[in-house]
Amino acid sequence: MKAVVYQGPRKVSVEEVPDARIEDPNDVVVRITTTNICGSDLHMYEGRTGVEEGKVLGHENMGVVEAVGDAVRQFKAGDRVSVPFNIGCGSCRNCLTGWSSFCTRMNPTEGMDGAAYGYANMGPYDGGQAEYLRVPFADFNLLSLPEGDEHENDFTMLSDIFPTGWHGVELSGFQVGDRVAVFGGGPVGLMAAHSAMIRGASQVFVVDRQPDRLRLAEKIGATPVDFSQGDPVQQLLDATDGLGVDRGVEAVGYQAHDHSGEEHPELVLDNLVASVRTTGGIGVVGVYVPEDPGASSDLAKEGRIPWQYGQFFTKGQSMGTGQAPVKRYNRQLRDLIVAGRATPGWIVSHELGLDEAPDGYAHFDAREDGWTKVLLHPSA
Ligand SMILES: NC(=O)c1ccc[n+]([C@@H]2O[C@H](COP(=O)([O-])OP(=O)(O)OC[C@H]3O[C@@H](n4cnc5c(N)ncnc54)[C@H](O)[C@@H]3O)[C@@H](O)[C@H]2O)c1
Ligand SMILES: [Zn+2]
Ligand SMILES: [Zn+2]
């Protein structure tokens, strides 16, 4: 089968690789209809992770069941499914308590709980930027979708960014009527903004410097804050009578940069502490890593990021972090899509065939104007 393979910094190619197949009775093989390129893939693409060359990428997958293992009960060939990016065993303590993103069993990497498809340090699993994908513990991991091809571009957001944006809002301690500032207007940040609006925020701000992303934020009724035009903290304080917002969502991650493009891993955390009110909450879904060999400072190379912890404590704020447990939200979000209450597909800017993936990566990585979210359709 054909698949997108990591070949080294800023190099991916479409290669012939061994077919995905049933390896365990609990497996399903999914024929991929849509698989997305994610901002998380760019950390690998830019050579800022330890991902090995030859890895098949892709953790945002959906498609149709092609083959089922003998122990699978709930799915059969032909079923349309969304595949959460997390791979859970379904029976460890974290899976049983709704934290499938920290499954203690599926990731053999020393010191790491939580597994995913096609991702650095998240276990030996191939990704789904390919014609087929092997899904372990399919009864636990897969989500059923209505048959047909309706809502394909909305449903494809259920594997990661829509639940992740929702989780960022959840981790912030959000309550109806809150004012929310989302840092990062990439796909995850825009999904956090979409989630906060659906959940009844009184006002949502989206901070970024990319005009196309800020335009999209405005289109869904959020207030854009352009950090290239002045200190975003001051802009947020000015817009909230000096009080600050109730909740903040971090949707940028450790490659946060200033308006000149220089990286400062602590920048967004500091901005959040300064712009969220006392006793307010911060949800961090932007990724931070325990080791970043490509970082510019020795501290950051070890994952140590000096940030305004003193101010954070003094303001009595709270913070939640980590990979999103997609399963906790994807059923409800699917039903909001079916009911027409959520339409995350508005974020899609490009739909490409698998062969065009290298081009898609390059444009999306350059944050080129208009390249907000790239979908690949392997069977097209
Ligand atoms: N926790 C999870 O489960 C999970 C899931 C998916 C993605 N992620 C992570 O979420 C983050 C965002 O993902 P994405 O797909 O939207 O990525 P992206 O790279 O497309 O978007 C990041 C955005 O942040 C903006 N940005 C950079 N510095 C900024 C600053 N100082 N202030 C405000 N905005 C700034 C960039 O201009 C860009 O638009 C990444 O770190 C990704 O790895 C986490
Ligand atoms: Zn993703
Ligand atoms: Zn588990």
From TrEMBL:
One of its GO terms (molecular function) is oxidoreductase activity. Gene3D superfamilies: Medium-chain alcohol dehydrogenases, catalytic domain, NAD(P)-binding Rossmann-like Domain. It holds the Pfam family ADH_zinc_N. PROSITE patterns: ADH_ZINC. Keywords: Metal-binding, NAD, Oxidoreductase, Zinc. Residues 25-139 form the Alcohol dehydrogenase-like N-terminal domain. Its cofactor is Zn(2+). CDD domains: PFDH_like (cd08282). Residues 187-256 form the Alcohol dehydrogenase-like C-terminal domain. Belongs to the zinc-containing alcohol dehydrogenase family. This is Glutathione-independent formaldehyde dehydrogenase. It comes from Lapillicoccus jejuensis.
